[in-house]
Write a structure and sequence with these properties.
Blueprint: E1 2-10, E2 13-18, E3 24-29, H1 35-45, E4 62-69, H2 76-81, E5 89-96, E6 102-106, E7 109-111, H3 113-120, E8 124-127, H4 129-132, H5 138-149, H6 158-163, H7 169-214, H8 220-232, H9 234-250, H10 255-269, H11 274-303, H12 308-328, H13 333-399, E9 406-417, E10 420-429, E11 437-438, H14 439-442, H15 445-459, E12 467-471, H16 479-492, E13 498-501, H17 505-508, E14 513-521, E15 526-532, H18 535-547, H19 553-564
Parallel strand pairs: 3-13, 3-14, 8-12, 12-13
Antiparallel strand pairs: 1-2, 1-4, 4-5, 5-6, 6-7, 9-10, 10-11, 14-15
Length: 565
Amino acid sequence: MLIDLKIKNYALIEKLEMNPSPLLNIITGETGAGKSIMLGAIGLLLGNRADTKLLFNQAEKCVIEGVFDISSYNLQELFSKEDLDFDNQCILRREISPSGKSRAFVNDTPVTLDVIRKIGENLMDIHSQHDTLQLGDTSYQLNILDIYAGNTSSMGNTTFDIYAGNLSYLRNYNESYRQYKKLESDYKKLTDQLAQAQKEHDYHAFLLSELDEAGLQENEQEELEEELKQLENAEDIKLKLTQAVQSLTESEFNITSALKDTVHTLSQLSAFSGKYEELRTRTESCMIELNDIAGELEDAERNTEANPERTLEVQERLNLIYTLQRKHQVQSNAELLQIQRELEEKVGSVLNLDTAITNTEKAMKAAEQEVMEKAAILSERRKASFGTFEEELYKLLAELGMPNARIVIQHNAVAPSATGTDDISILFSANKGAQPQTLIKAASGGEFSRLMLSIKYMLADKTALPTIVFDEIDTGISGEVAVKVGRMMQQMAQKHQIIAISHLPQIAAQGDSHYFVYKHDTEDRTISRIKKLDDQERINEIAHMIAGANPSDNAYQSAKELLSL
């Protein structure tokens, strides 16, 4: 429920504030006085795009703020999802700067337009002549029937339904349908992957067999390259090893003999000091190490031989490795082994995909069965409501001056969609003997208005509608019918706050609160203002609505009679 509305620096409005009644609020005024401007400002508050051309003063920012009581709207989950603090009183605010920058706030927390739009559509429901035409859309008609049948929690407002306290039949079905469509999408992706994998399978299998046949080993390339170097330089290596052995053991002044003499000399001196004994021990250790080195050099020299056959064998093995590296565009044996592992996964993935496809297909069929079962329940509930919906709507239209109206709900079964398996169309005729047709073909603007008002009236007891704004929805009616429309609005307002912009005195007289929008001329420009009328001012305004600028005594008397009704 809207508690307070402030509009500052918007179009012809310099500053405006209203505190609407929780019941039926009537707004009247001359054409062009600013009633539609107010709706434009409210639209900005609910997330519509802003235009700096609409600033009253181009040097100042525009601010529109609405305070709402949301204690009965069950919006806690929506606020939680958007990471906003919830309170029973919610403040929406839009600010548009002269530069064109727009900012939105919910309870003083900056939010995106999308967030304020999600919240706003749960707080206010605006219906103008243009908006009423959506009644001709079959998806909108299906929403109406779902609310009437108790399948959902909101009219044309999926956001409210999602965050309502109870799980509706439509939402329950829709969750199963989304799960089914996800599995269907997963199944298609897997089958596409399998088809692609099968196309590449033979090529991958060939590459894998080539690498398997090569029998590559970790560090093999490095070991072979080192071995090849030794094989290709065997004679030079053997010569240098021989020279090293001779330097250690066989030359006239070899190191081993020198160390042996040193050990003998130090042995003779060790009797004189422990220090000489320590030096002898260390020298003897060096001699033993050099003897070991000499032995290993001799073994290496004996084992080093030119081997053309082995050289050729190593060269061929390395050539195979280099060829595979060039083919796979890598630089090392380790990379080839990684490619081999990846090819093994790709070749084996075909079998894994078969298993995944089988499991997904099974789950998809089970989900499809669940969808069809829930769709059947939803469809039966819809069809069970057709008769009472047609009858109730017919009675309301008869009261509103359309006694010959006929309402027929046409139903066709269709493939499952997000809304079920039903294609619904409300057929209408206003005249006796005329065959019912789709609303677009059969209903005039005034008839559309009465249809929408009647439907809103029917749904008022079935769902928690937000504040309803009717913008001249009474166009095309007059007399006693207008009185009945006013009474219908008054009855709806017992459970839902209503703000109605009207030119009809019969409807204006039904309001709990009456606001008058008027133009005020200053020295340099025209300004729109609004005031709440007291009892005498209401009589004067309704008399003017009846008789024009100079109402007669009869007009004043008629105004009093309308108010007394």
